[in-house]
Amino acid sequence: MKIVIIDGQGGRMGSLLTEKLKKARIPDAEIFALGTNSLATSAMLKAGADYGATGENPVVVACRDADVIAGPLGILAADSLLGEVTPTMAVAVGQSPAPKILLPVNKCNHIVVGVQTYSLNELTDRAVEQIVNLVS
């Protein structure tokens, strides 16, 4: 089971997801931490990710055969996360056949209407719950 977590900036969301997924003890799950920058990758690796890589090409390659992709909503939008998500990354995520667990963070001019505002802790709890349901 290949779970790909994509995050940028400081990697806080990705590291919380990683930590909580590890605690969920999903059998045969491997967590691939893909950062749009080295700080984000490092944070996710410190949180317990099995593998880590940084930049555009690792995102493109990992999305091809991912079983689940998780991260902020912005991973689907070119130039989001303060410009860290390239158009190629957004296309790779969008075209992947893997289910996407997207956390709706209303920042960077991406506002999801009708979505309640949750803390990052609450969002990651809900995301982990969805991932566990998907792979069970």
The count of DSSP E runs of length 2 or more, i.e. the number of strands, is 5
The biggest beta sheet, please?
Answer: 5 strands, parallel
Number of domains: 1
> What would you call the structural class?
alpha/beta
- What proportion strand? 15-25%
CATH architecture: 3-Layer(aba) Sandwich
Task: Give me the CATH fold name.
Answer: Rossmann fold
Shape: globular
The oligomeric state of the chains shown is single chain
Unreliable residue stretches: none
Integer-rounded radius of gyration: 13 Å
List the helices and strands in order: EHEHEHEHHEH
> Roughly what is the average pLDDT, rounded to an integer?
93
Helix content: 40-55%
Strand order of the largest sheet: 3-2-1-4-5
For the record, give the distance between the C-alpha atoms at the N and C termini, rounded to a whole number.
11 Å
CATH class: Alpha Beta
Number of helices: 6
Show the helix and strand layout.
Elements: E1 2-7, H1 12-24, E2 30-35, H2 38-46, E3 51-54, H3 56-64, E4 68-72, H4 80-83, H5 87-95, E5 100-103, H6 120-135
Parallel strand pairs: 1-2, 1-4, 2-3, 4-5
Q: What do you see in this structure?
A:
It contains six helices and five strands. It has 136 residues and is of the alpha/beta class. It has one domain (2-135): Rossmann fold, CATH 3.40.50. The chain has a five-stranded parallel β-sheet, with helices on both faces. Strand 1, helix 1 (12-24) and strand 2 (30-35) form a beta-alpha-beta unit. Helix 1 packs parallel to helix 2, helix 1 packs across helix 6 (120-135) and helix 3 (56-64) packs parallel to helix 5 (87-95). The protein is globular and about 35 Å long. The mean pLDDT is 93.
